[in-house]
Amino acid sequence: MHTAAPAPDAALDELYRDFASAHLTPLWTQRADLMPMTPAPAAAPFVWRWSDLYSIATRAGDLVPVGRGGERRAIALANPGLGGAPHATATLWAAIQYLGPKEVAPEHRHAQNAFRFVIDGEGVWTVVDGDPVAMRRGDFLLTPGWRFHGHHNESDRPMAWLDGLDIPFTQYIGAGFFEFGSDEVTDDTTPPVSRSERLWARPGLRPVTSPGATAASPIACYRWEHTDAALNDQLALEDEGHPGTAGPGHAALRFTNPTTGGDVMPTIRAEFHRLRPGAATRTRQDVGSQVFQVFDGAGAVRLGDTVRELHRGDLVAVPSWVPWSFQSEASGLDLFAFSDAPIMERLGFARTSHPEGA
Ligand code: 1HN
């Protein structure tokens, strides 16, 4: 009979208990999760139907007031892989926001960068640091971090649009600040064009007296008539034998900051893609995540091995490294897209590959 040292198993059990009580975790039990061979995001590839979103937003419009406290009647896409968090992907928030006739969403500001993309309607002005900006179908509007902003609907009809923000990223890194502003909007005039656009939104021209590079674009709104004309000309030039397209039958534009030529905001890239009837994008996979919204037409998206049909307004979340491509039907397909690519590029994580030699 002897009093042996604890059996190895018992000693090991004790070691693991002590890890836990000291708030420590050994790498050798976790390595494959912490360092997968290729990105293994928790978020799932997912499609939300506009018909579901719009009807549920309408019901919220009837039942839930908009005002101080909640601030916005915005209904976030909650990716099914993210445990109920209001996150479309690991880094991006996307929501449908609904503002009824004559309603006002009060002013506030936050460190998070935001944009709006208008799928339908008009009659709302967003007031960004005192500058009223009209919102109309196809327009892409910026509210970069720490600018006061509120919205007011001057029309007799409700209006709904897409909001995109870098909320999940900002939350994860602990960088969020928030401040209330005026309960009404500070300027309730309704000019067709904002002061920001009059200063900054003329192609290839910038005011000389303004500061140099700014982290976010000074253009408050990128108007649909410009986006549409640029896409039409890309495809027309392809027909004329002078291609500037992203691929056959695939016109693509990136919204840019005129002071840098780079992305519109430090954390968010925004693009617009137009596929001719029957055209498809090349299959690719990217580090970083993105969200697409069908602006017009119909088609399908392939996400990994799954193909989903798409119609006007539908939203698609593409997590990091999921292979994706779009195909257009006879109607053609117009897609608005936003992503966290500026973060990935700036931090040196960006990679793109074309699987199956696609
Ligand atoms: C916000 O300020 C807006 O200004 C939309 O319209 C969505 C989600 C969370 C926090 C602030 C807006 C938001 C938001």
UniProtKB/TrEMBL annotation:
Keywords: Dioxygenase, Oxidoreductase. GO terms for molecular function: oxidoreductase activity, acting on single donors with incorporation of molecular oxygen, incorporation of two atoms of oxygen. It comes from the Bacteria. InterPro entries: Cupin_2 (IPR013096), GDO-like (IPR047183), RmlC-like_jellyroll (IPR014710), RmlC_Cupin_sf (IPR011051). Pfam families: Cupin_2. Residues 97-163 form the Cupin type-2 domain. This is Cupin. The lineage of its organism: Bacteria, Bacillati, Actinomycetota, Actinomycetes, Mycobacteriales.
